[in-house]
Design brief:
alpha+beta, Beta Polymerase, domain 2, 5 strands, 55% helix
Length: 244
C-alpha cells in the first residue's frame, strides 16, 4: 500500500468508480476523523436508488480494505431499526459524524438528521425479563470467577463478567453498546467511573491473575441493576413457534 495516498481521495474514487449513480455517500470511522493509519480500512455508506439493493460488501481498492454499507431508502430505514433494536448505532454514527463524499440532492442532510434523532433518543431499555436473565448470568459468572483456579479459565470467565456487567451498565444509563474496540469506548462514554473500573479490573486480572478489582466493579454494576440473582430465578421455555 502506498502510504502517501490520501485515504479520503481513495474513498471518493471508489464511490465515483463503483457507484456512479449513487445518491449519497458518507465516509465514517477513523479516516473521517483524521485518525487513519496506513492499514486503516475505509467505512463507506452508500445510498442508492430505489431500484438498487441493500447489502454489505468488503473489497480491496488500491491496496486498502473497504467496508461498504449499500442501501436503498427503504433498506436504510430497516437497517436503522435493526441498529436500534441491537442497541449498536453503527450506521447512525457514520451518517451523523462522517464526511460527506457525495450528495446529489441534499439527501445527506436529511439522513443525517434522522441519524442524529436516533442517537439523541438512545437505545430502547431492556425489558424486565431480559434484565433479570442478565443479572442471573452475571451472578453465575462472578461465582465462577471466584472459584476459578486455572489461569486460562479465569481469563475466559473474566471476559464473560466484563461483557455481562457492560450490558447491565449500558442499560442502566440507556447508553449505546459496542463490541470489540467499541466496547471500552462506549463504556467510558456511558459511565466514566464504573466503566473505567470494569476495564481496569479486567486488564489487571489479565496481567496479574487477580480478580478482586473486576469482581468489585462488576458487583457494583450488579447492585445498580437489582443485585445478585440466584435462587428464585425461573423462566418458562417458549418454543420457536410461540415466538412468531
Amino acid at each position: 500500500m502506498n502510504m502517501h495516498v490520501d485515504p479520503i481521495d481513495q474513498a471518493r474514487r471508489i464511490v465515483r468508480e463503483q457507484f456512479p449513480d449513487a445518491l449519497v455517500a458518507v465516509l465514517g470511522g477513523s479516516t473521517a476523523l483524521g485518525r487513519a493509519t496506513a492499514s486503516s480500512d475505509l467505512d463507506i455508506v452508500v445510498l442508492v436508488g430505489d431500484d438498487g439493493e441493500t447489502c454489505r460488501e468488503t473489497l480491496r481498492f488500491e491496496g486498502r480494505v473497504v467496508e461498504l454499507f449499500i442501501h436503498t431508502r427503504a433498506g436504510l430505514a430497516e437497517l436503522f431499526a435493526v441498529d436500534l433494536a441491537a442497541r449498536r448505532p453503527v450506521l447512525q454514527v457514520i451518517y451523523a459524524t462522517g464526511l460527506v463524499l457525495l450528495d446529489r440532492d441534499g439527501g445527506a442532510a436529511r439522513v443525517r438528521a434522522l441519524a442524529e434523532a436516533d442517537l439523541r433518543q438512545g437505545p430502547p431499555a431492556l425489558d424486565a425479563d431480559t434484565v433479570e436473565t442478565k443479572r442471573y448470568g452475571l451472578t453465575d459468572a462472578l461465582d465462577d470467577l471466584g472459584d476459578a483456579t486455572d489461569p486460562v479459565e479465569r481469563v475466559a470467565v473474566a471476559g464473560v463478567v466484563l461483557a455481562g456487567a457492560a450490558d447491565l451498565l449500558f442499560d442502566h444509563h440507556r447508553a449505546w453498546t459496542g463490541v470489540g474496540k467499541w466496547l471500552p469506548r462506549r463504556l467510558l462514554e456511558a459511565d466514566g467511573t464504573l466503566g473505567a473500573a470494569l476495564l481496569d479490573g479486567h486488564l489487571r486480572l489479565c496481567a496479574t491473575g487477580d480478580p478482586q478489582a473486576l469482581t468489585g466493579a462488576a458487583s457494583a454494576v450488579l447492585d445498580l441493576a437489582g443485585g445478585p440473582l440466584r435462587e428464585g430465578y425461573r423462566r418458562l421455555w417458549r418454543s420457536t413457534a410461540d415466538r412468531r
